[in-house]
Amino acid sequence: MKGLSIILPLTLASMLLTGCAIFPEPNSAEQPPVVVLAPQPPSEVEQWLLTRQRLCNLPAVEQRAQLLARVSADVSREGKIERVLLASCQPDQTPGLLREALSSLDPKAEWSPGMRALLAMINDHARSYRILEDKNLQLASQLETTIKGIREIETDMNSLQGNGTAP
Predict the structure, then answer these.
(1) Domain count within the chain
(2) Of 81, 124, 128, 76, the residue nearest 101 (C-alpha)
(3) What is the extent of the structural domain holding 76?
(4) Would you say the C-alpha torsion 47, 105, 76, 64 has a positive or negative sign?
(5) pLDDT of residue 90
(6) Considering the domain boundaries, does residue 59 fall inside one?
(7) Contacts of the segment 97-105: beta carbons below 8 A, 24+ positions apart
(8) What is the full per-residue pLDDT of the chain (167 aa) written as tens digits?
(9) Is 36 part of any domain?
């Protein structure tokens, strides 16, 4: 028993020493240096997205006024893009103006891949909104037809009650 009480602390001490040797403390000279990158100027797409955000933060009345003022005012490439971005702020309020602004862009123009992707995304959203508009028109037409049919049934029922015979 006495031998065990001496062996146990020696075993634990040797395990601790061995464990420390297996996992040495990392040397600060071996760690890779921290690389600090200089801030990059915003890309063309980032600049346009920031411009869109600024335009969309304007009050709705101001947005509409600027959008209508730009319809015929600026024919430059940048002016056309700003018009698209402005019209994309509230597509439910200006769906026709957004489609018109998108169609004013030259499809053969040289666009960076990022700008091409941004304009494609806005165009996809405008197309999707157009599909929803068409579906709403169809539903409104179906609703009107249903209401007209119900009115005819009501008229027939009222005439039956009035004279007791079928019309």
Answers:
(1) 1
(2) 81
(3) 44-155
(4) negative
(5) 87
(6) yes
(7) 97/67, 97/71, 98/122, 98/126, 98/129, 99/126, 99/130, 100/71, 102/126, 104/80, 105/80, 105/81
(8) 555 556 655 565 565 555 555 555 555 556 677 777 767 777 889 999 999 999 999 998 998 888 888 776 667 888 889 999 999 998 888 788 888 889 888 877 888 899 999 999 999 999 998 999 999 999 999 999 999 999 999 998 988 876 655 55
(9) no
Q: Is residue 57 part of a domain?
A: yes
Angle between helices 44-56 and 77-87 (to 10 degrees): 50
Distance CA 101, CA 119 (A): 11
**Counting Cβ atoms within 10 Å, is residue 126 exposed (0-12), middle (13-18) or buried (19+)?**
buried
Residue 160 in domain: no
With DSSP H G I counted as helix, E B as strand and the rest as coil, what are the percentages for the chain, rounded to 5? 70, 0, 30
